[in-house]
Specification:
The protein is mainly β. It has one helix and 41 strands. It is elongated and about 60 Å long.
Length: 392
């Protein structure tokens, strides 16, 4: 697990930023026998868990003489890895998959070296069990599914990369992930990305995890029909470049952005903190980075939190009808916030509505901001009367 511990705080949170092989080919039934430092951020009145990115998450090295080579061009169907170790996957298959099923105490280091894997009815890479799986990207890789999925137990294997345990992706190579009727990457545990170039095109979520996502580097281009990056727990971004076109850009219960260049074009919300886990108060916390969000028309928000929005640093540039919406409190402690081309010194709280504006005549006719009185046909936007900004 990448989750270390619960910190019940009001408070200061310290983030520590700190594989004899066995391969079975299902068709042929043949067998071939440090932490890097820390940094401290302050979060007001909240409880979050500490995410850890280890030296091993960043380590792309391996001894090739001790690695097993899987040439997909020489096998057919499913290739299954059943013992820990390092495996180099190369070649291509138009209807096959790589399955990893080792013990919960074993790690697998999977090197994708100019590999092309397409699975018609399942995941191209499917992790059934392991302690940790590390995927290192080398060269140019292509992974895809066919858009129909066969259930495995209680799960529909509805992603191109599908892992039931902890997963790390690193390296200097690239991967193109295509999912015409599902997700790009699904991890039922914790996901870490510390490098690589990703081109993800998914009809559902680009990346989806149950527990947490930590991204420290890499280049991610994501086109998704639903969420580009979704987690039920904590989403922590410490770096990387993101080019996102999706229904929603980033979604999680607690979203922390410390650095990175993030461009989001969303038909719904740009960044959404929703109550996916009872462990945390929904929060968007921005401490650094350069974030540019453009939303579509309608009931959409640039920053949308069912709880709090905290901006301590970075540049946030939002263009859209409703720029920020929160149900808890807002803290603007530093950084730059640009709303529809104008720099502001507080976090607005806006919502779409029609007719009468909010308390105090905050409504406006014809969509013209800052005017009082009755909203025009189709509705103007007013400040929520029941919430106030908290500026510190």
């Amino acid at each position: 697990m990448k989750i270390l511990k619960m910190c019940a705080i009001a408070l200061t949170l310290t983030l520590a930023i700190t594989g004899c092989a066995a391969i079975t080919n299902a068709s042929s039934a043949s067998s071939v026998s440090s932490d890097s430092g820390s940094k401290t951020i302050t979060i007001s009145d909240t409880s979050v868990e500490e995410l850890s990115v280890t030296d091993k998450d960043n380590d792309t090295s391996y001894d090739e003489s001790e690695a097993e080579i899987i040439d997909l061009s020489k096998v057919s169907g499913t290739t299954k890895i059943t013992s820990e170790g390092t495996y180099i996957v190369t070649g291509s298959t138009s209807d096959g998959s790589v399955i990893i099923e080792v013990t919960e105490e074993e790690d697998v280091h999977l090197i994708l070296r100019d590999a092309s894997v397409t699975s018609a009815t399942s995941a191209a890479i499917y992790v059934i069990s392991a302690d940790e799986v590390y995927i290192t990207l080398e060269g140019s890789n292509t992974l895809a599914n066919g858009g129909s999925f066969t259930a495995s137990g209680e799960d529909d294997i509805d992603a191109v990369i599908y892992s039931k345990d902890d997963l790390t992706i690193n390296g200097d190579g690239s991967v193109k992930i295509t999912s015409p009727a599902g997700h790009g990457i699904v991890c039922k545990d914790d996901l870490v990305i510390t490098g690589g170039t990703f081109d993800i095109d998914a009809s559902e979520d680009g990346i989806n995890t149950n527990d947490s996502i930590a991204i420290t580097a890499g280049s991610l281009t994501v086109k998704a029909g639903d969420d580009a990056i979704h987690t039920d727990g904590i989403l922590q971004i410490d770096g990387g470049t993101f080019d996102i076109t999706a229904g929603e850009g980033l979604e999680g219960t607690y979203i922390v952005i410390n650095d990175g260049s993030i461009t989001i074009s969303a038909s719904d919300d740009g960044i959404n903190a929703a109550q996916k886990s009872d462990a945390y108060t929904p929060t968007i916390e921005i401490n650094g980075g350069n974030i540019k969000i453009t939303m579509g028309q309608g009931d959409t928000d640039g920053l949308d939190s069912n709880g709090n929005i905290i901006i301590n640093g970075g540049v946030v540039d939002i263009t859209g009808q409703s720029t920020c919406d929160y149900d808890g409190k807002a803290e603007f402690n530093g950084g730059t916030l640009i709303v529809n081309g104008s720099e502001v010194d507080s976090i607005p709280n806006q919502f779409m509505g029609g007719g009468q504006g909010g308390q105090g005549g905050m409504g406006f006719p014809g969509g013209q901001d800052g005017q009082s009185g009755q909203g025009g046909p189709g509705g103007g936007r007013g400040m929520r009367p029941d919430f106030q900004n908290t500026q510190t």
